[in-house]
Specification:
The complex is a heterodimer of chains A (413) and B (164). Chain A is built from 16 helices and 18 strands. By secondary structure, chain A is α/β, with parallel strands linked by helices. Chain B is globular, with a radius of gyration of 15 Å. Classes of the chains: A alpha/beta (413), B alpha/beta (164). Chains A and B meet through α2 and α5 of A and α5 and α8 of B.
């Protein structure tokens, strides 16, 4: 029987063919622990009675949710994680480099075929390079730190096939939001989304990251792309038979197949307060907006900032509106500085912040209040996510966000 | 498995996400006890103060969706909730709950029938009796039962490390 991408990745690691529903214990290539969860994870690790980390070089600590600290006691998390790293010999620490999910591939850790777990649900992002990656709790992470392995149930796969050229105002964000709208917020629970087709073949790795990142919003365990030459170039490795072998077999079995014609897709938004409350931008156009947020592990990369800058170049944003721009990493920040993107955004009146999770998790600058409306490029519009529970969050692409900032009302790019 | 118990029902809806169960701003409080008053606050700010130990939550589909924060099942357990009965669960929440010894029951029908304030009789791994009707419930896979029976993943690991 043919195999899906995720069945091949898991099968390679456990040394035998697997099928959906099998419960297997997998060896772990990479562990990511973020700053919010570090103290809790360390406490569980010690309670479990471990005296050493199974492989300190396979562990990555990243400070991003609380950086720079905005509340008294946030910095305790950095100190406790630093002390843990020192005690157990962990050298992979990113204290100010950017968002964990950007860094795990950008800084060269996760590669095609790897298995990776992180203490944050958007760990699914690393599926963009053809890896099996998913979020877990801090107790399970503590167990991995001690043992280097975790039990998983091999997931079924939903094939999401997208063919053709996207319209100019439609981005990979609109694609994944449309998919979530069709699947619903629980439609892929326990399953893998496997993205394929000419549309995604032609996408940059950055655009694919946006789609893998949001797979969890449909409940998925991971969102995976088979690795191609573009993936390997991004990862700094040659494209060989090993990566080619990770592509799905022609007779692979899927629980469901979704097919999209890219030409028919339109710019969409996820309306308050559910990620699957998807509407075309044209249906909510004209809604007055108080703030626009461009950033996050979903859409804080160079191409996202460039797309916004192209729209905002030579203009200023609506006078009553604030636009917060948060690059996903220092590397993105420096690249956007070097090519003039940040200058255009600053000239347009944007507030440019340090790389990190910032506003997306409701802790950084730009918190909103009752009845305010924000158009945001991140991945969640839950109640209370970016301020009070009466803030209305619309999730959108960087293009829709920039056009909206220009006019002050939700506007199609 | 635990014995039969009777519990008062609190009814929540579909897609109760982990930001509702515990908002980000309270995640870094030092202990789960400190977090308890803020559970479910974006949706029902008064709820945490009303829940009594032994009560149960009945909810719709996709309970616990969203972030991987383990504080979510921990705070539900700390409130004394005896079990959650939902149409379905998000996978990270499901694993986290088992690892913390919080009983989760999947049932497609109780949510549509259940009224807040009523009581139900729960026999884990077997059935729920509510309003004269019996709702059958499935038992958990073997590897999860082992973790639950050990009292959670920390205790299972301590055993592995020869400490208990």
């Amino acid at each position: 029987m043919g195999q899906t991408v995720i069945e091949k990745i898991i099968g390679n690691k456990v040394g035998h063919a697997v099928k959906p529903g099998d419960i297997v214990t997998v060896p772990v290539d990479w562990c990511m622990v973020d700053d919010i969860m570090a103290p809790f994870c360390i406490k569980k690790f010690e309670e479990m009675g471990f005296t050493k980390v199974w492989d300190p070089d396979r562990v990555v600590l990243i400070y991003d949710h609380f950086l720079p600290a905005t509340q008294i006691d946030d910095s305790r998390h950095f100190r406790e994680a630093d002390a843990f790293a020192d005690k157990y010999g962990i050298k992979n620490i990113h204290r100010t480099d950017g968002i964990c999910h950007q860094l795990m591939t950008e800084a060269g850790y996760v590669k095609p075929g790897d298995i990776s777990f992180g203490t944050d649900s958007h760990t699914v992002t690393y599926g963009c390079v053809g890896a099996f990656a998913t979020g877990i709790g801090y107790t399970e992470m503590a167990g991995i730190l001690g043992t280097g392995e975790l039990w998983i149930k091999v997931p079924e796969s939903i094939k999401v096939e997208i063919e053709g050229a996207l319209p100019a105002n439609v981005t990979s964000k609109d694609v994944i939001l449309s998919v979530i709208g069709d699947l619903t917020a629980s439609g892929a629970t326990y399953q893998t989304l496997e993205f394929c087709g000419s549309t995604v073949d032609n996408m940059s790795v950055a655009s694919r990251m946006t789609m893998s990142n949001m797979a969890v919003e449909a409940g998925a365990k991971c969102g995976v792309f088979a690795p191609d030459e573009k993936t390997c170039e991004y990862c700094g490795i040659p494209y060989t038979e090993k990566e080619e072998a990770l592509h799905a077999d022609a007779d692979a079995v899927y629980s469901r197949v979704l097919h999209y014609n890219a030409e028919e897709l339109v710019p969409v938004v996820a309306c308050p307060s559910l990620v699957d409350n998807i509407k075309p931008v044209s249906e909510v156009a004209g809604t007055k907006v108080d703030q626009v947020f461009l950033g996050s592990c979903t859409n804080g990369r160079l191409e996202d900032l460039q797309a916004a800058a192209k729209i905002l170049k030579g203009h200023t944003i609506a006078p009553f509106l604030k636009m917060i721009v948060t690059p996903a990493s220092r590397k993105v920040y420096r690249a956007a500085l070097a090519d003039g993107t940040l200058e255009i955004l600053a000239d347009a009146g944007c507030v440019i912040t340090t790389p990190g999770c910032g506003l997306c998790c409701g802790r950084g600058g730009g918190i909103l209040s009752d009845n305010e409306v924000v158009v945001a490029t991140n991945n969640r519009n839950f109640l209370g996510r970016m301020g009070t529970s009466k803030v209305k969050i619309y999730l959108a692409s960087p293009k829709t966000a920039a056009m909206t900032a220009l006019t002050g009302v939700i506007t199609e790019a | 498995m635990a014995q039969k118990f009777t519990a008062k029902i609190w009814v929540l809806g579909d897609d109760i996400d982990t930001d509702i169960i515990l908002p980000t701003e309270y995640l870094a409080l030092k202990t789960v006890e400190d977090m308890k008053p803020y559970a479910f606050s974006p949706l029902r700010p008064e709820l945490a103060g009303l829940i009594q130990p032994g009560d149960m939550i009945v909810a719709g589909k996709n309970f616990g969706c969203g972030s991987s924060r383990e504080q979510a099942p921990e705070v539900v357990k700390a409130l004394g909730i005896s079990c959650v009965v939902a149409k379905s669960y998000a996978r990270i929440f499901f694993r986290n709950a088992i690892n913390n010894g919080l009983l989760l029951i999947e049932n497609a029908d109780l949510y549509d029938a259940g009224t807040e304030g009523d009581t139900a009789e729960v026999t884990p791994g077997k059935e729920i009796v509510y309003n004269g009707k019996t709702y059958e419930i499935a038992s958990l896979p073997e590897n999860l039962t082992e973790i639950l029976e050990a009292g959670g993943l920390v205790k299972a690991m301590r055993k592995r490390n020869g400490l208990d």
